[in-house]
Write a structure and sequence with these properties.
The protein has 2 domains: 86 residues, no CATH class; 144 residues, Lysozyme (Orthogonal Bundle), CATH 1.10.530. It is mainly α. The radius of gyration is 35 Å and the shape is elongated. The chain is built from 10 helices and 2 strands, in the order H-H-H-H-H-H-E-E-H-H-H-H.
Amino acid sequence: MLNAMQSTLPRVRRVVGGFWELAHQTLMMVGLFVVAGGAYLYFQPQAVSWLDRGLTQWVMARKTAADELQALAQKPADALLPVVQAATPPSVEAPALTPQQRTVSNWLARRYSIAPNAMAQLVGAAWTVGQQEKLDPLLILAVMAVESSFNPYAASGAGATGLMQVMAGVHRDKFAPFGGPQASIDPLANMRVGALVLKDAINRGGSVRAGLRFYVGATTDATEGGYADKVLAEQVQLERVAGVAPRNAASMTASATPSSGAPAAQAKPTVAHEPQSPAQKTPALT
């Protein structure tokens, strides 16, 4: 027992000595900083004035804030109501949709797990853009469903972005009115430009199916990977939800209501791409 205590005592002394040395050096450093600070203030009297002004301003600001809080606490609740109402941001309400549009919006919101108000905005915009460009709004919605699942920030490895997966770099001219290619992630801008590209593709192809092949940048039906079938199947499902009588989609133009006899299927987002070789004559539009 005695031997253990004798062997431990030197260790304790070393530890205590180490702490004492550390404290001593710390106090010396603090003292040096104090002396250096005092010397600086002595030879730089303007620094003292600057510190005094800063401290005075801080004290006055604190006092003003305390007085305002005290005065605010003494006001009756009725007097504070206008202030609270002015500070409250306006609520975002869903746009006024027709019963048919509301049915489509609610169905899409549930299927793709999108906030109802956000989906209502997209559905309303699709109807507006469709009327302006003489495109079936259900076709526009079907393209967005297949391309991005209604994710405005979706992006592909080929550079397609937004709801309709438009190649912003290729269609700089169409994005110019919206501020340039960076506007491709803006839902409305992307939808408008995508509708223009889709309309041009359908007019070039002569039918909705051929136009969808142009839209995805495929050269033949065999190379488009079933993209047109996915979009048309999605459109058929939307027509059933909206209560629209389906028509033959193969021969329809941009202004008609396309359809297909294919059963509705859960479509996965696809990626628009450009042809891989210069010999291919069909440029990617999205």
